[in-house]
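A.,

Following up on our hallway conversation. C-alpha cells first:
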C-alpha cells in the first residue's frame, strides 16, 4: 500500500530497536520500506501514528524493556498504532496477546513485510484484540528487498539468520529458526547501494555468520566480493563463534586492506564444566589456543568477547576460572551479561542456581576488569 495515493497528510512512523546488531540492521531495512510506502520517520519521543518496536528475547530484561517502551510511547502518542515484532514477538506471542494497547504482533518470519502488513492509513486504528502474523520460520536461504536506511558512515548488512548450535541458555534457535544465509548476489547488491549512499564501512551481521553458505560461497567469498566494491573503505565482522573462524579467514584478514583486524568471539565462561553445561562446542584450552593462533597471525588484532555470569552451577571456583581466562587473554573489551532463565531452554532444568545478588556482584567484577583492559 502506497500512502502517497491518499490526500490526507502522510502518516508518521517511529521505529525502536531493542537488542543486537542484527535487529538494528533489520530496523534500518524496515525504515527504508516504510519510507518507500509513504511514511515519514519520526524520532522516538515525538508524536507518531505508528510505533514499531523490534524486540529482543536474549534476557528477561529485554522483555521487561519491551513492556516499558510500549507504555512510554503511549503516554505521548495515546492513539498510536503499536506493532511489536522481532524475537519476543516470535517466542512470547501469548504474553503479548494479553498486553494492553498492542495492536499488531508480527513474528520474525513476517517481520520484513511489516510496511505492507500495517493496515491502510484511513483504516488505521487501535485494535480491541491485536492482529497477529505469526508462523513457522522458513529454513531456506533468502533475499531482502530494499536498502538499510542509516545516518552514519557505518552501516550494517544482514547476511545470515538462525542458529542450530542449541546453547542450553539460549532462545535464539526458537526465535529465529534454523541457520540460513542471504543469497550472495543480493547481499552484494545492498552493499553496493549502501556505498553509493555514502557509507564507507559495512558491518556483516547475522546470528551465526561463520556458518554463512550460499552454494559454494562461504563467509570469505562474501568478504572478497565486498572488498571489490569501489568506494568501500572498511569491512567489519560482527560477533562470530570460536569454532567457525577458519585459518583462511585469518590469513586473509592479515593481508587485507579493507577487512578490519577485529574479532568479537564469545567466550561465555572460562570454566570447562560450565561450558559443557552450556552446550558450548569448545573447551577453555581450545578457545585459548584458537585466539593465540589468531594473534600470532595478526599481532595487532583487536579482540573482544562476551561472558555470561550466574549460570547454574557457577560457584566461586568456576567464576575464579573465568576471571583468570579474562585476565590472561589480551581482550580489548568484554560484554558482560547476567544469566536469566529463558522458558523452554535446557538450562532451566539445571540444579544449583546462582543468587541474583551474587550474579550482580560477579557482573560488576568482570565489568571492572573490562574497564581496566580498555585503559
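Then the amino acids I'd put at each of the 375 positions:
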Amino acid at each position: 500500500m502506497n500512502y502517497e495515493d491518499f490526500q490526507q497528510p502522510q502518516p508518521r512512523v517511529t521505529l525502536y530497536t531493542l537488542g543486537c546488531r542484527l535487529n538494528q540492521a533489520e530496523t534500518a531495512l524496515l525504515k527504508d520500506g516504510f519510507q518507500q510506502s509513504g511514511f515519514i520517520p519520526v524520532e522516538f519521543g515525538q508524536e507518531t501514528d505508528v510505533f514499531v518496536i523490534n524486540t529482543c528475547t536474549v534476557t528477561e530484561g529485554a522483555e521487561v524493556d519491551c513492556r516499558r517502551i510500549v507504555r512510554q510511547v503511549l503516554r505521548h502518542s495515546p492513539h498510536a498504532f503499536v506493532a511489536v515484532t522481532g524475537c519476543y514477538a516470535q517466542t512470547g506471542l501469548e504474553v503479548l496477546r494479553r498486553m494492553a494497547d498492542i495492536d499488531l504482533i508480527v513474528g520474525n518470519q513476517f517481520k520484513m513485510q511489516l510496511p505492507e502488513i500495517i493496515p491502510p492509513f484511513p483504516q488505521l486504528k487501535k485494535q480491541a484484540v491485536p492482529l497477529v502474523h505469526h508462523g513457522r520460520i522458513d529454513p531456506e536461504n533468502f533475499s531482502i528487498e530494499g536498502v538499510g536506511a542509516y545516518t552514519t558512515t557505518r552501516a550494517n548488512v544482514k547476511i545470515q539468520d538462525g542458529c542450530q548450535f542449541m546453547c542450553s541458555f539460549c532462545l535464539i534457535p526458537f526465535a529465529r529458526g534454523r541457520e540460513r544465509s542471504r543469497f550472495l548476489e543480493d547481499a552484494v547488491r545492498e552493499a553496493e547501494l549502501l556505498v553509493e549512499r555514502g557509507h564507507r564501512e559495512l558491518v556483516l551481521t547475522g546470528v551465526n555468520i561463520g556458518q554463512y553458505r550460499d552454494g559454494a560461497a562461504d563467509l570469505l567469498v562474501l568478504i572478497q566480493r565486498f572488498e571489490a566494491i569501489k568506494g568501500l573503505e572498511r569491512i567489519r565482522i560482527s560477533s562470530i563463534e570460536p569454532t567457525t573462524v577458519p585459518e583462511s579467514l585469518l590469513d586473509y584478514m592479515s593481508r587485507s586492506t579493507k577487512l578490519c583486524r577485529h574479532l568479537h568471539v564469545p567466550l561465555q565462561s572460562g570454566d570447562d564444566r560450565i561450558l559443557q553445561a552450556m552446550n558450548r562446542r569448545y573447551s577453555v584450552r581450545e578457545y585459548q589456543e584458537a585466539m593465540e593462533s589468531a594473534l600470532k597471525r595478526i599481532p595487532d588484532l583487536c579482540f573482544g568477547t562476551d561472558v555470561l555470569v550466574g549460570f547454574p552451577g557457577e560457584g566461586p571456583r568456576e567464576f575464579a576460572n573465568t576471571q583468570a581466562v579474562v585476565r590472561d587473554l589480551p581482550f580489548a573489551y568484554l560484554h558482560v551479561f547476567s544469566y536469566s532463565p529463558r522458558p523452554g531452554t535446557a538450562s532451566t532444568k539445571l540444579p544449583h542456581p546462582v543468587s541474583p545478588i551474587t550474579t550482580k556482584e560477579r557482573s560488576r567484577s568482570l565489568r571492572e576488569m573490562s574497564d581496566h583492559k580498555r585503559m
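Confidence is low (pLDDT under 50) at residues 3-7. Curious whether your intuition agrees with the design.

B.
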